Amino acid sequence: MTTYLAAEANPTRNTGAIRLYDEAAFAGMRRACQLTARCLDELAAIVEPGLPTEAIDRFVYDFAIANDAVPATLNYRGYTKSVCTSINHVVCHGIPNDKPLKEGDIVNIDVTFIVDGWHGDSSRMYPVGRIKRAAERLCDVTYRSLLLGIEQVRPGGHIGDIGEAIQTFAEAERCSVVRDFCGHGVGRLFHDAPNVLHYGRRGEGPEMRPGMIFTIEPMINIGRAHVKILSDGWTAVTRDRSLSAQYEHTVGVTETGCEVFTLSPGGLDTPGLAVDGSAGSAD
């Protein structure tokens, strides 16, 4: 049975109950999420062949400090970087290092900033120079999957509605949905209830109610869905080494539908990519 509670009742611990936030909390989330979105916008100008992902990490850290924010991943459960950079067959949690990006790579950059105690969480795909059509198509399918998931967010709907929309579309495009990772509640806590699966059945899972805040972040593979974790304990890769892509937004359930907190202020939600953003079939 799903339990809901006013967010102020227990702000510092994940109890499994779903928090319902008020308008003041929504305002705090807007500030945190828009700072994250601004950082992701500015990264579009520096991602290029030859750039080490360590330089991306430094950029994100410096951006946070300059704007009175804290990178949420820094020292989170032993993670030592300010950002995750996941390249090509890396599904998520790629650790920045001194290896340079190469022409034709695709890289997911996942940023979470803490601003006045609120967590703004978002990620985007970036092409490195000129990329192959298969990679661009995967990014297209993944972004459209995210948008279709967001379209399901409304009071009275269920978390399973989001998963079904994403799974149905992605699998119809001959791609697979990663099941090992999911979206999550977010707010004062980095990771909170509910889990937001990117597969499932309509009408299943917790009911969405006004005040809920969570991420939707589908990870879509061009090959099989199977994932393994490398020896560093963080980096998740596709077992068949096929390309993987991910986009992520933080959303809130309103009285009438959905607010997307992490939209790009510069219109760069798919930087450098010819992504349709409609619900039609990808070529």
Automatic annotation (TrEMBL):
<keyword id="KW-0645">Protease</keyword>
<protein>
    <recommendedName>
        <fullName>Methionine aminopeptidase</fullName>
        <ecNumber>3.4.11.18</ecNumber>
    </recommendedName>
</protein>
<feature type="binding site">
    <location>
        <position position="184"/>
    </location>
    <ligand>
        <name>a divalent metal cation 2</name>
    </ligand>
</feature>
<dbReference type="InterPro" id="IPR001714">
    <property type="entry name" value="Pept_M24_MAP"/>
</dbReference>
<dbReference type="InterPro" id="IPR036005">
    <property type="entry name" value="Creatinase/aminopeptidase-like"/>
</dbReference>
<dbReference type="GO" id="GO:0005829">
    <property type="term" value="C:cytosol"/>
</dbReference>
<dbReference type="GO" id="GO:0004239">
    <property type="term" value="F:initiator methionyl aminopeptidase activity"/>
</dbReference>
<feature type="binding site">
    <location>
        <position position="110"/>
    </location>
    <ligand>
        <name>a divalent metal cation 1</name>
    </ligand>
</feature>
<dbReference type="InterPro" id="IPR000994">
    <property type="entry name" value="Pept_M24"/>
</dbReference>
<feature type="binding site">
    <location>
        <position position="93"/>
    </location>
    <ligand>
        <name>substrate</name>
    </ligand>
</feature>
<dbReference type="GO" id="GO:0046872">
    <property type="term" value="F:metal ion binding"/>
</dbReference>
<keyword id="KW-0378">Hydrolase</keyword>
<feature type="binding site">
    <location>
        <position position="248"/>
    </location>
    <ligand>
        <name>a divalent metal cation 2</name>
    </ligand>
</feature>
<feature type="binding site">
    <location>
        <position position="121"/>
    </location>
    <ligand>
        <name>a divalent metal cation 2</name>
    </ligand>
</feature>
<feature type="domain" description="Peptidase M24">
    <location>
        <begin position="28"/>
        <end position="255"/>
    </location>
</feature>
<keyword id="KW-0479">Metal-binding</keyword>
<feature type="binding site">
    <location>
        <position position="217"/>
    </location>
    <ligand>
        <name>a divalent metal cation 2</name>
    </ligand>
</feature>
<dbReference type="GO" id="GO:0070006">
    <property type="term" value="F:metalloaminopeptidase activity"/>
</dbReference>
<feature type="binding site">
    <location>
        <position position="121"/>
    </location>
    <ligand>
        <name>a divalent metal cation 1</name>
    </ligand>
</feature>
<comment type="similarity">
    <text>Belongs to the peptidase M24A family. Methionine aminopeptidase type 1 subfamily.</text>
</comment>
<feature type="binding site">
    <location>
        <position position="248"/>
    </location>
    <ligand>
        <name>a divalent metal cation 1</name>
    </ligand>
</feature>
<feature type="binding site">
    <location>
        <position position="191"/>
    </location>
    <ligand>
        <name>substrate</name>
    </ligand>
</feature>
<comment type="subunit">
    <text>Monomer.</text>
</comment>
<dbReference type="InterPro" id="IPR002467">
    <property type="entry name" value="Pept_M24A_MAP1"/>
</dbReference>
<dbReference type="GO" id="GO:0006508">
    <property type="term" value="P:proteolysis"/>
</dbReference>
<dbReference type="Pfam" id="PF00557">
    <property type="entry name" value="Peptidase_M24"/>
</dbReference>
<comment type="function">
    <text>Removes the N-terminal methionine from nascent proteins. The N-terminal methionine is often cleaved when the second residue in the primary sequence is small and uncharged (Met-Ala-, Cys, Gly, Pro, Ser, Thr, or Val). Requires deformylation of the N(alpha)-formylated initiator methionine before it can be hydrolyzed.</text>
</comment>
<keyword id="KW-0031">Aminopeptidase</keyword>
